[in-house]
UniProtKB/TrEMBL annotation:
<dbReference type="GO" id="GO:0005737">
    <property type="term" value="C:cytoplasm"/>
</dbReference>
<dbReference type="InterPro" id="IPR015422">
    <property type="entry name" value="PyrdxlP-dep_Trfase_small"/>
</dbReference>
<dbReference type="InterPro" id="IPR015421">
    <property type="entry name" value="PyrdxlP-dep_Trfase_major"/>
</dbReference>
<dbReference type="InterPro" id="IPR015424">
    <property type="entry name" value="PyrdxlP-dep_Trfase"/>
</dbReference>
<dbReference type="GO" id="GO:0016212">
    <property type="term" value="F:kynurenine-oxoglutarate transaminase activity"/>
</dbReference>
<dbReference type="GO" id="GO:0030170">
    <property type="term" value="F:pyridoxal phosphate binding"/>
</dbReference>
<feature type="domain" description="Aminotransferase class I/classII large">
    <location>
        <begin position="133"/>
        <end position="482"/>
    </location>
</feature>
<keyword id="KW-0808">Transferase</keyword>
<dbReference type="InterPro" id="IPR051326">
    <property type="entry name" value="Kynurenine-oxoglutarate_AT"/>
</dbReference>
<dbReference type="Pfam" id="PF00155">
    <property type="entry name" value="Aminotran_1_2"/>
</dbReference>
<keyword id="KW-0032">Aminotransferase</keyword>
<protein>
    <recommendedName>
        <fullName>Aminotransferase class I/classII large domain-containing protein</fullName>
    </recommendedName>
</protein>
<dbReference type="InterPro" id="IPR004839">
    <property type="entry name" value="Aminotransferase_I/II_large"/>
</dbReference>
<keyword id="KW-0663">Pyridoxal phosphate</keyword>
Amino acid sequence: MSICWNQYPGRAFLHNQWPRKSMRLSPYSPNPSTHHEMFLSSFSTFSPSLRLPVAVFKCIRSSFKTTLSFSSARACAAMASLSTVSTDKEADQELKYKEQAVSPQPQVAKRLEKFKTTIFTQMSNLAIKHGAINLGQGFPNFDGPDFVKDAAIQAIIAGNNQYARGYGVPVLNAAIAERFRKDSGIEVDPEKEVTITSGCTEAIAATILGLINPGDEVILFAPFYDSYEATLSMAGAKIKSITLCPPDFAVPLDVLNSVVTKETRAILINTPHNPTGKMLTKNELEFIANLSIENDVLVFTDEVYDKLAFAAEHISIASIPGMFERTVTMNSLGKTFSLTGWKIGWAIAPSHLTWGLRQAHAFLTFATSTPMQWAASVALRAPESYYEELRRDYNAKKAILVDGLKEVGFIVYPSSGTYFVVVDHTPFGFPDDISFCEHLIKEVGVVAIPTSVFYLNPEEGKNLVRFTFCKDEGTLKAAVERMKEKLKRK
Ligand code: GLN
């Protein structure tokens, strides 16, 4: 059990090392001299969007070499090309300048320097590259329901194609309010208390950027979804992280009690929890609620897996007496309707908090896709049987993966909700999650997510990896077979 503050020095390195093909370095002993090289390699391997600008830059540079001033290295290179080369040393120096000039340094603001490419993108790219079965990034490899796709097509044909109202198409605001009333018992005003965003990720960003000031203290539970830390960093928040430990990932209430003070501005929770599958218990939620009320703290709650609650009833913290007034509840369409690419999300909050998050939303995306919002309103009016069937299907998938992982020899931790399961890989003898995942991709042909990226201190996650079961049964069985055949206990 530990508490961490942000600015852990090893983390940026960890994010950088995946795309590197041949080099193996420990993420736990950063080596600054190779740091930049690895970062560049990650871009040249994985980012076609950067390759094009580099090519364009090279071309422009060759024609306007002396007039452009993209960086001081380039200016130096231009000067060097006019000077007379008299020694080997100078020739080497000139070569170095030229190399620097044709490979511009990737530029990023300090607040985002440590994050780089997300682990999900990196792992999905590696899955394609190595032909591995992707049980890493959480997206279904099957399609969403026809009645929702048909509704989107109809909305487009009907001409619902211009900007949506900034805070949402009215039918969707109403459908969300109705769904929330059924699920949590809370009556909300769809016009003043519901805001539609581009996925839950934007709801998180709008909430944090709209309600958190630089220097505000925000509490997170590690392991945490990667966008929380990045967005809090963009807002200039001071992050305090409380670690949830296996086997049950229970909230250490005494630690939480000592960490929440009058200085705390917000607590960010996620239930059911990605990556562990833990669902916060009623007792834990009430404890968080009491502390928040006592210390006048806001609660931001990410509930995107609420319809994938297997072992217990999902509880929205906003439904605890006294909590609605201080809570932003965030959710999305993607997981529940297997349409992660639609990016329809929302934030439900009392109007005094909605004010701040709408201010941020207005300048982040302004509005999100109009026809998809119409279709989302149809989706949310699905009969209860849709949700029951979803849970039944996922229970079957979960059993295939969990039983399979146990047979392979992992220590499998119980997952109560979400479509993820976290395991301890140490029976196979690898020193950390990164080296294990590397072996799993290259030698076994299966992709998992190393969890150390979800901690301020990566050491805390080095024994754990996450698998997803949002794939068809054939894919899950094939992945288990590969692991049974090729993974050997040490
Ligand atoms: N939520 C998805 C996961 O946890 C990933 C989404 C993303 O790639 N940003 O796997």
